[in-house]
Amino acid sequence: MKVCFVGSNYPPEAYGGTEQVLRALAAHLRGHGVDTAVVATSDRPHEGVDRHDEVLDGTPVTRLYRHRDEYDRHGFVRPRLLARLGERLRELSPDVVHVHSFAGVGTGVGALCRELGVPLVISCHDLWTTCARAFRIPAGGVSCPPDADRTACITCVNDALQTDPAVVAAAFRDRDAAVSAEFAAAAAVTTPSATAARFVRDCVPHAGPIDVIPHGLLRAVPATERTPPPADGGPLRVGTFGGLVEQKGVRELVQAVAGLPCELHLSGPFHVAAFGDEIRALCARQGTTLVHRGRYGADDRHPARDLHLAVFPSKCQETYCLVVDEALAHGVPTVVSDAGALAERGRTGGVVVTPLVDLAVVLRRLVTSRDRLAALRQAIPAELPTIAVSARRHLELYRRLVSA
């Protein structure tokens, strides 16, 4: 069986959550005898060459380079990119096309797959299909709608565009029609969480079946890499890891540990340098000991190994959050916000879900009580879902579609 993934980027150029999942999923599918290939756009500008082909971990990867007018701001149908995608699919002759993100190539993939006679699977790793700003963090003083009403969305998007609201409304009608056409063409739809499924069902809206297939842990964690409990009299290490951006609640975490007897560990890049300067200055003002470790890779020591409590106070409407699995797999209890799919983690042992305004209260309760922290640690499940389970479920789905 041949399966072609379509995404917005792919390692080693990008190592976001979706890109990590795609790479791990491709590897496990290859272990089941599936020939995998990837077509992804790139964040690098078009410089006279439409595409670049390479092989990564045994998977052929084609990167399509975009012109300046092939981004969301200029519309959601990109004929030139669709043509290049069509050329590559004809070369590959896949049995299934699996789209993991439309944000790069835009819409029109469903019609292309119908033309080629290939079943289309859509996986909604993010909320691009339900939100023109992708993360459902509203601007302009509005709240995100629980359904497909775009009244608030027009105000939110126009907060950045500052143009005629009627123009934005017309663009939304075009966008909604294009996204709905993709789901109508799909043979199957999957999401990594029940929360993501609900967003797709209510906000696209999509009335068809949706398979909830959690990503799970992307790589096994040996017992030797599980973090030991804090030593008596030693410093308690509290922190977070991943992309250090304002939307992930990093500022709120720093403010919440003010005055607590702990070290604050932040691992990952500050994608905005000014925000990094702000965080360092805030720690200095409130007397918080800050340990910042920059970018880390899959082959580096995992940052969870240096924590006793991991905190993920995201303000984004998360669809999964891989870092929670990584912390738990290393034996580190977690505190998360209740944003999006993070609220579902309350059903997983060792995870505390709290409204963000109560973060300081929750952290003080845990940091000042080693017994409470130990109880959370003991509640972490011995086994967690893994990408191997996701691969098997997707393979079953592919086989069902091909046999049909």
Structure explained in plain terms:
By secondary structure, the protein is an alpha/beta fold. It contains twelve helices and 14 strands. The strands form two sheets. The chain has an eight-stranded mixed beta sheet with strand order 3-4-2-1-5-6-7-8, sandwiched between helices. Helix 3 runs parallel beside helix 5 (165-185). The longest helix is centred in the middle third of the chain and has 21 residues, at 165-185. It is globular, with a radius of gyration of 22 Å. The mean pLDDT is 95.
Descriptive keywords:
single chain, 404 residues, 12 helices, 6-stranded parallel beta sheet, alpha/beta
Short description:
By secondary structure, this protein is α/β, with parallel strands linked by helices. It contains twelve helices and 14 strands. 35% of the residues lie in helices and 17% in strands.
